[in-house]
């Protein structure tokens, strides 16, 4: 069936909560209208948690005060004591206020307990610029998050992956951050009815080509694909790899592709991920490279509000075309 | 009551002797990290934990939590080995003195971040509520943590969601070397908690009998679904922020009454035997822990791989 990313995620929530009573969902306005007595409200600002409270009750679908530190910490403690929480942090920018709970608490329990326990919690959050949400509702922090030992990070680019990665995330013993792009929620795609889990650390070849490898996640997969369409008209064959999870990272797939093409461009909306891929390819696949890899990433500034400036900040199709052409020649 | 007082005394002696011996080992250079001792808070911690069920209740504590782990029933040998960085430690030496985890006896975790442990206990309370275990979440923190956002947010959250949770503020008058009076604005920390809608109790940590009685009442009321409770207990801090500290402010710590001495005098004849037995037991514990092997490099490599580290 065809579903949008928000519909696929919503369906996955229903299936997961149905299958296991230990699964709970919490966050700000995920039910909506709490305390007003007028029935269900928003179902989350992007509708992902819509309908859950009617089916599973307010005991398991919990609207919280605007207190990210407290409720992310509550998620951690609940995961350590028998529940399987899915915690929504409305925008990944808000992780700035609960950094301690994510970096110091959730990420470290496995090691600090000597491996006896961990934190089987999923944090769902959004990323992505492009809609003038401004500097504090638009960032992409997967590059940063993936640097913290103990965290796993997934960035789906389509409905099947979004639902499948959520399922795998909830089965994982460790804290997982699922980063959903704000600009992709309405993107539709074919999805199997049972929403099969998508394994971590297994990327996907989005399109095959032998001239150059582009590595991208989330919305940048689609931007890269448009560029590849244009270049195909001139006979250029671009291979696009979507690793789907940032940590763990499918280096085998990336290296296999670079072995074939000898050329690499990483396109990303965050800081850190492109650097990480290029560093590892240089270390682990230097002999495959026929030219120095390139990255197409945002300007090193906070995200501006004015639409023209925001587009200037974001990696553009034109920049990707330029990077590709510099590597493969006109 | 006399029996309960004896139990609290016995546990408090265990903690005091344990920490005194850890301090000696630190003086000998055998403890890798800095240890933060709970001298003066033992009777309070033992009294609170006496009212808890180590199977269904979960406790989190601060960096000063050797005593709490023992009060919940953690094996002294494993706690000592952890503090000494040995393979037989609770977490095979991965956590150390500030990060003790003994979830098998209801001690969920202690914490290196001041106040970081408080939200975690609200999660244990949520689990108890959702899974209907009949348990509660309990968190201990000091006056130094009372001004952390994590603590204040969780006080509000516990009331908003009506979590079965107990906050225990150990007010020893110092956040590291800063006085509580200086650091905390407002009338009192108890009034603050009232403002959040928490039921509040003030305890004198030196009055073991009163602590036992009040905490029993409080835990019963939380388990009956009557909402989260905040206790502010006054305890002396009989030593420095960490063992070995020699700062000038410490002169203000002297001269305070030791709650364990008060309880000792109250207990009477049996006290001497308890001290003697405990000391013999702990000498053996420390001897074995000192001789225990250090953790293997393989264990760290295993975590590296599990956490997605580069091959």
Largest interface chains and counts: A-B, 47 and 50 residues
- How much helix is in the residues of chain B? 40-55%
CATH superfamily of chain B: Thiamin diphosphate (ThDP)-binding fold, Pyr/PP domains
- The helix/strand order of chain A is EHEHEHEHHEHEHEEEEHEEHEHEHH
Rounded to an integer in angstroms, the radius of gyration calculated over CA atoms of chain A is: 20 Å
What is the CATH C level class of the largest domain in chain A, in words? Answer: Alpha Beta
Give the strand order, joined by hyphens, for the main sheet of chain B.
2-1-3-4-8-7
Subunit organisation of the chains: heterodimer
CATH topology of the largest domain in chain A: Rossmann fold
Order of helices and strands of chain B: HHEHHEHEHEEEHHEHEHHH
List the strand order in the largest sheet of chain A: 3-2-4-5-7-6-12
CATH H-tier superfamily of the largest domain in chain A: Thiamin diphosphate (ThDP)-binding fold, Pyr/PP domains
What's the level 1 CATH class of chain B? Answer: Alpha Beta
Structural class of chain B: alpha/beta
Summarize this entry quickly:
The complex is a heterodimer of chains A (330) and B (311). Chain A has 330 residues and is α/β, with parallel strands linked by helices. Chain A has helices at residues 5-19, 52-56, 68-79, 99-105, 109-112, 142-145, 159-171, 219-233, 251-261, 273-284, 307-313, 317-328; strands at 2-4, 23-27, 61-63, 84-89, 122-127, 152-154, 176-181, 188-190, 204-207, 212-216, 238-242, 245-247, 264-267, 294-296.
Overall description:
The complex is a heterodimer of chains A (330) and B (311). Helix content of chain A is 35%, strand content 18%. The mean pLDDT of chain A is 96. With 330 residues, chain A is α/β, with parallel strands linked by helices. In chain A, strand 2, helix 2 and strand 3 form a beta-alpha-beta unit. Chain A starts with a strand and ends with a helix. In chain A, helix 1 packs parallel to helix 7 (159-171), helix 3 runs parallel beside helix 4 and helix 8 crosses helix 12. Chain A has two domains: 2-190, Rossmann fold (3-Layer(aba) Sandwich); 204-328, Rossmann fold (3-Layer(aba) Sandwich). With 311 residues, chain B is α/β, with parallel strands linked by helices. Chain B has one domain (2-292): Thiamin diphosphate (ThDP)-binding fold, Pyr/PP domains (Rossmann fold, 3-Layer(aba) Sandwich), CATH 3.40.50.970. Chain B has twelve helices and eight strands. In chain B, helix 1 packs across helix 10 (259-267), helix 1 (2-27) packs parallel to helix 11 (270-291) and helix 4 (76-83) packs across helix 11. The mean pLDDT of chain B is 94. At the A-B interface, helix 3, helix 4 and helix 5 of A face helix 5, helix 6 and helix 12 of B.
